[in-house]
Amino acid sequence: MNLNNWAEFWDMGGHGLYVWGAFGAVALAFLVEVMQIHQRQRAMRDNASWRAGAGTKEATHEGQN
């Protein structure tokens, strides 16, 4: 395939919509996956720190009674 200019490259012989749409869908899926991984890690850290803090507070509170 000989491409003489950028317009022909983006058009890809009439298949550009499908090709670039597929690239866009994959890029979006990767982005969503990375965001979900960060969200799950943050939730696990928050849950772990909450449990650690809750256990400390309960032990302190029980000692005060």
Order of helices and strands: HH
Mean pLDDT: 84
Rg of Cα set: 26 Å
Number of helices: 2
Amount of beta strand: under 5%
- Anisotropy-based shape: rod-shaped
Q: End-to-end span in angstroms?
A: 82 Å
Point out poorly predicted stretches.
none
Helix content: over 70%
Query: What is the tally of beta strands?
Result: 0
Biggest sheet statistics: none
Structural class: mainly alpha
Give a structural overview.
It contains 2 helices and no strands. It is mostly helical and 65 residues long. The radius of gyration is 26 Å and the shape is rod-shaped. The mean pLDDT is 84.
Observed structural traits:
65 residues; 2 helices; rod-shaped; mainly alpha
Outline:
With about 60 residues, this protein is mainly alpha-helical. It has helices spanning about 5-10, 15-65.
Strands, helices and their partners?
Layout: H1 6-11, H2 16-64
